[in-house]
Amino acid sequence: xxxxxxxxxxGFLGASISLIIRTELGMVGSIIMDEQIYNSxxxxxxxxxxxxxxxPVAVGGFGNWLLPLMMxxxxxxxxxxxxxxxxLVPVALLFMSLSLxxxxxxxxxxxxxxxxxxxxxxxxxxxxxAIFSLHVAGVSSILGGINFITTCMxxxxxxxxxxxxxxxxxxxxxx
Length: 175
Prior knowledge:
- Its cofactor is heme.
- Helices cover 71% and strands 0% of the residues.
- By secondary structure, the chain is mostly helical.
- The model has no long low-confidence stretch (mean pLDDT 78).
C-alpha cells in the first residue's frame, strides 16, 4: 500500500510538472523565465516518473501482492528486505527535491551523465545530490529485484513449477 501511495503522489507531482512544461513549450517564457530552471524541471520530471512512479508502482506495489498470488506462495521471500527497499524511495525523492534547491538546480539530464558531472559543467552540489538520489533509487530497485528473483525461485522450487508455466509478469520480474 505504501508503494501505491508514494507512486500516486509522485504521479500527481510528475503530471503537474508535465503540465507546466507543456504550457511553457506552448508559450516560451510565459511561466518559467529562466532556461536553467526549465531544464532542471525537465530532468526532475524524467527522474520522478521513472524512479518514483513507474518503479514503485509496477515493482513494489503490484509485486508485493500480485507476485505471491501468481506464484501461490505466502509472502515475498524477504519481507524485511522489501520494507527496506521501500523506505529508500522517499529518501531518494528528498535528495532529488533538494537538488532543485541547491545552486541553480541540476540543469539538463546530460549533466547528470558522469563524464559531464564535474565542476566545469555545473555550479555546485545540485548535480551531486541528483546523482546520489539516482543511486539511492537504484539501490532500492536492486533490493526489490533481489527479493523478486528470490521469491520466483523459491516459489518455483517449492511447488515444482517449470519455467514454461510461469506467468508473463513473473518472467518480466526475473528478466
